[in-house]
C-alpha cells in the first residue's frame, strides 16, 4: 500500500498530513477531486489503517506491486522516512528511477550520497536479491535491504559463504585438518555481503526492530542513523575484510596442515617408519646378512634412535608450548584436540619450516633404508 499519491499536481505523503488536512482531502476527493497513485499512475482512494496510518490504495486492482504491501511494511517505510528527514536528509518515499527500472521504499540524499532502504518482508532468494540490487549498484546508489524472514533463507546465504571459504581448497572434498571452523562462523548479513556485496540487516517486522550477527535487537532509529553516517557500511566492509584475511591465511596454511596430518598417521598412529625398519631388520637377520656384517646392527640401532627423535620432535611441534597449536576441548565428548593458531603469516611460515624438517627426515630415512636393500649397509640418517 502506498504512502504517496498525486493530488492537484502535487505529491502528497499521506501520514505527513495533519488529521484535519487529511479529512479535508477526503471530503474533496468524495466530491470528485481525482487522486492519482504515484506508483503506477492509476486512480486511487484515501484510507486510514486500524493503527491510524494514512495511506492510499488503488481504485481497481491493476496488478501494481504496491497493492501487495503489508501494514507492517507501510509502517516501517514511514518510520524510516521520518528518521531520515529528522537527520536532515532530503528524503523521499516510493522513489522511482527516472526510467522506472526501480522504485525504492525510502530514498535519502545528501551531498554526493544517495542511500535507499528496501524493506523485504516476503522471502527472497540470493539470486533475486542480486538481480534487484544490481540496478542500484549500476547507478552508484548505496542500497540497504531490511530482510525479514532472514532466518528462513539463512541457509541459502550460508551456502554461498561456505563456497566462498572453500573456493581455493586443493582438496575440496576433505576438511582441512587442525582448523577450528568456528573461526569462520558469522551471520547472514556478513554471508550476503562477503559473497554478493549486498548490504542487508535482519528485520523483525512485527516488533519493528533489527538484528545482526552480534546484536539480537537494534532499534530502527539507531540503525538507520548508523547507516546514514556510513557506520553500518563500514561494519560490513571490515567484517568482509576480516573474512578475506582469514581465508587467505587458511589457503596458505592448508598444504602444511594436510602434511601434518599425514605425519601424524605415519609417525604416531601407524608407526610406519618403525614397522618398515623392523621388517627390514628381520629380513637381513633371516637371510644371514646381519651375521656376515655385524656393523649393520649399529646402523639399525641408529635408525631406531632417529625414529625416537622424530616422535619426540613431532610431539614437541604439536605441544601447546611450541606456539603453533593450542589444545581445545571437543564440544561433544570433552577430549582434547589440537587446533592450529591461524593468527598470522609468521605462524604459517613457522609451520612450513616444521614440515620441511619432517620432510627432510623422511627423505633421508627412505634413503638409509634403501641402502640396506642394496646390501651396502652404510646408511646413516642425518637431519
Ligand atoms: Zn500503483
Sheet with most strands: strand arrangement: 6-7-8-9-10-11-12
Rg result = 34 Å
Write down the domain tally: 3
CATH topology of the largest domain: Trna Endonuclease, Chain: A, domain 1
What does the main sheet amount to?
7 strands, mixed
Secondary-structure content class = alpha+beta
Number of helices: 11
Per CATH, which architecture of the largest domain? Answer: 3-Layer(aba) Sandwich
By CATH reckoning, the class of the largest domain would read: Alpha Beta
Shape: rod-shaped
What hetero molecules are in the model?
A: zinc ion
Strand count: 14
Mean pLDDT across residues? 91
Q: Spans of 5+ residues with little confidence (pLDDT < 50)?
A: 374-383
The percent range for strand residues is 15-25%
Terminus-to-terminus distance: 78 Å
What is the helix content?
A: 40-55%
**Element order: H for helix, E for strand:** EEHEEEHEEEHEHHEEEHHHHHEEH
What descriptive keywords fit this protein?
14 strands; disordered C terminus; binds zinc ion; seven-stranded mixed beta sheet; three-stranded antiparallel beta sheet; alpha+beta; Trna Endonuclease, Chain: A, domain 1; about 20% strand; about 375 residues; rod-shaped; 11 helices; 3 domains
